[in-house]
Amino acid sequence: MGLRVAVAGATGRTGSEAARAVQAAADLDLVAAVARSRAGQDLGVVLGDGPWNVPVETDLDEALRRSRAEVLVDFTLPDVAGRHALLALQRGVRPIVGTTGIPAGDLDEIRRAVADAGTGAAVIPNFSFGILLLARFCREAPRFYPEVEIIERHHAQKLDRPSGTAMQLRRVLEAAGARCPVPVHSVRLPGHVAHHEIVFGGAGETLTLRHDTQSRASFGPGVCLAARRVMRLRGLALDLESLLEE
Ligand SMILES: NC(=O)c1ccc[n+]([C@@H]2O[C@H](COP(=O)([O-])OP(=O)(O)OC[C@H]3O[C@@H](n4cnc5c(N)ncnc54)[C@H](OP(=O)(O)O)[C@@H]3O)[C@@H](O)[C@H]2O)c1
């Protein structure tokens, strides 16, 4: 029996890839899938992967209770994810929020609820190992190049701007000594998935770091890692790197 993982937003662009990764991991069990529609349909069939024996449910509270989930992974909407995380914490389930753009007040509430419960939770704007490595370099570079700007490009359906990842990278750059505030430019156009470019300018030279997400399948391994590590965590992790230490 593996770690029991529920996914909210399991029929969506990103949640479906998270669910696929959990389903494929030998040490994780996908025990519940939540969305607003498709109630009662098997998630594997909905995703075109064949039966998984995991029905889509619309009531998160009921799904957590029925499935005895230990971890909730959320890829829903900015105004929904905070409520989901708080509900999970009330039920003794550790939330991993992948949804970006959640209001600051919701994040504060999650932080308080995690402290009160003495448990672990994560709000992670990007599950890609490429972004984890990019963030490491962003900690080094401002020492030599304090002038830096971020360009983020995403698909036209993305609700939040700037992206949660760009805001995370900006915090890293500013903490490492970049000129504040680091400007962030947002592009929303068809044809994109998720792309982040960090451009450092020095005397007579520029240095450009660029990460491209071609497929949301790239988030799966990071989601699985977060699910395993959040079980050992006390407190709130705000990036994938801090979970690596657990
Ligand atoms: N952290 C990361 O690495 C990462 C990577 C990519 C995206 N994201 C973020 O993930 C979020 C989702 O993006 P997406 O493109 O996957 O969205 P999407 O394709 O629109 O999927 C949203 C999912 O949430 C479900 N949903 C919406 N409201 C719900 C509710 N009240 N209760 C239960 N389920 C609900 C939808 O179900 P219905 O279709 O039935 O409404 C759908 O399954 C965004 O905030 C995005 O920025 C994060």
How would you explain this protein's 3D organization?
With 246 residues, the chain is of the alpha/beta class. It folds into two domains: 3-123 and 217-244, NAD(P)-binding Rossmann-like Domain (Rossmann fold); 129-214, Dihydrodipicolinate Reductase, domain 2 (2-Layer Sandwich). It has nine helices and eleven strands. The strands form two sheets. A seven-stranded parallel sheet has the order 3-2-1-4-5-6-11, sandwiched between helices. It has a four-stranded mixed sheet with strand order 8-7-9-10, covered by helices on one side. A hairpin with a 2-residue loop joins β9 (194-202) and β10 (205-213). α1 crosses α8 (220-230), α4 (78-90) runs parallel beside α5 and α6 runs parallel beside α7 (164-175). The protein is globular and about 60 Å long. The model has no long low-confidence stretch (mean pLDDT 97). NADP nicotinamide-adenine-dinucleotide phosphate binds next to α4.
